[in-house]
TrEMBL record:
It comes from Saonia flava. This is Aspartate racemase. GO terms for molecular function: aspartate racemase activity. Pfam families: Asp_Glu_race (PF01177). PROSITE patterns: ASP_GLU_RACEMASE_2. It is an enzyme of class 5 (isomerase). Its EC number is 5.1.1.13. Belongs to the aspartate/glutamate racemases family. SUPFAM superfamilies: Aspartate/glutamate racemase (SSF53681). InterPro entries: Asp/Glu/hydantoin_racemase, Asp/Glu_race, Asp/Glu_racemase_AS_2, Asp_race. Keywords: Isomerase.
């Protein structure tokens, strides 16, 4: 089994889901008392959040680059960034390490194709929904159309994420708001919904959505485990 390197802390709520997902997947695959060989470096989310709203993406990139380099030096064989939004600066990782980096949109795109979906809706932070690093990646690399909510609904989702979810707050009111937005995307032709914030699946159970939802963090983590178990040479 190879060692998975995890860059966490964005937020720690999502990081614990990644840790649980990689270990659950290893136990499913290998049975017994097996657990996942992994290393996690956790950044301070308050610092990342501040730089995000200042638009200092290069500053965030330097923090992420430093974490990735430390993971490689510590013995990681592959690196995962345990967040959706900060993949905006994922080139700071891929350009500065010699081990593989698994992009979350790559894992998500492959899962969408596996499900046979051609048009999906995307929920996430304003940055994830509005910038092209995520939906553009999926369109260009997997030929899947990605649509996003209107401006007012994007603000609702963005505010829920930053004001509640990253602080560990998950309310019925916010869930109902998101479910209403999903209904609108479904009416616009979405055949599935990318939950493009790693905390969103905690708020929005798949059982309450009529169309398939894509839990990006779990998909990402499980694909990394498959890689770790299948690349032993």
């Amino acid at each position: 089994m190879k060692t998975i390197g995890l860059i966490g802390g964005m937020s720690w709520e999502s990081s614990k889901l990644y840790y649980e997902s990689v270990n659950t997947k290893v136990k499913e695959e290998l049975g017994g008392s097996h657990s996942c060989k992994n290393i996690m470096i956790t950044v301070d989310f308050a610092e990342i959040e501040k730089l995000t709203f200042e638009g200092d993406w290069d500053g965030i990139g330097e923090i992420i680059k430093d974490a990735a380099i430390k993971l490689e030096r510590a013995g990681a064989d592959i690196v995962l960034l345990c967040t959706n939004t900060i993949h905006l600066v994922s080139n700071y990782i891929s350009d500065n390490i010699s081990i593989p980096f698994l992009h979350i949109a790559e894992a998500t795109g492959l899962e969408i194709k596996k499900k046979g979906l051609r048009k999906v809706g995307l929920l996430g932070t304003r940055f994830t929904m509005e910038k092209d690093f995520y939906k553009g990646y999926i369109k260009e690399n997997h030929g899947i159309e990605v649509i996003v909510p209107n401006e007012a609904d994007r603000k609702i989702v963005h505010d829920i994420i930053y004001n509640e979810l990253v602080k560990g707050q998950f309310t019925e009111v916010s869930k109902e708001k998101c479910l209403k937005i999903i209904k609108t995307l479904q009416k616009d032709g979405a055949e599935g919904i990318i939950l493009g914030c790693t905390e969103l699946p905690i708020l929005i159970p798949s059982s309450e959505v009529e169309i398939p939802t894509l839990d990006t963090g779990t998909i990402h983590a499980q694909m990394a485990v498959e890689w770790a178990l299948n690349n032993n040479n």
